[in-house]
Amino acid sequence: MLDRIVLVTVATVAVAAAVFDDDLGSYWPSSQQQATNGFRDADDAGFSVQYAQTLFGDKPVIDSARCYSCMSRFYEAVWPALSHVYKRPRNFTDYCNDDVVDPRHVPVVDCPTICIRMWEEPTVAGVRIRGHIRGCLDDLLHNGFNQTIVTWYRWMHRDSCRQYRKRELFMLNADESDDSYVNVCTCYADHCNSAGSSSGATVSLATLALVALAVRWL
Length: 218
Fold this sequence. Notes:
Blueprint: H1 2-24, H2 31-37, H3 49-56, E1 65-68, E2 70-71, H4 73-77, H5 79-82, E3 108-111, E4 115-120, E5 123-124, E6 127-128, E7 131-136, H6 147-152, E8 160-165, H7 166-169, E9 181-187, H8 199-217
Antiparallel strand pairs: 1-3, 2-7, 4-7, 4-9, 5-6, 8-9
Helix pairs in contact: 1-8
């Protein structure tokens, strides 16, 4: 009986840890790939990008989603300098900064892939300003996102939130970007780019389910 309890406990912890790692993105590149591709996480390479493509392919897990489309208002003031990189959102509004977007003020677009929420804190005239960008994966950048990063972190197959170096993620030239980072969340459900990542809730529910199954087995 004691051996069975120990076995169940070990299995539950192992699977819960796997779920937790998967939600937060456990497939981290090596330190060399981090420097090359703009990844900000631990230097632990699990497998190559080519292997990730073989396992997960390049298609989203659902056919479409409805995503909020907006940028913080201060982006509009510098839009001439940004318009060659970003596609114009449905509107510029400070409602885009809210933790939960108000649909009365932020339009929604039909998206054939996944929803994106990005935010950064650039310093302007000595003052740190937080800016948000929300939209559909296909409608945010003229040249798209770095596909190596999209594939490595399985954007098309799971919800995730993490930091990336903007120069690498947006494939910008060195003379038009610095080494700053941007936070990016990806998700699939309608209007999911309104709030933050739900990975913590997913982990908690998965862990509770595993514990319940273990107790029942005993």
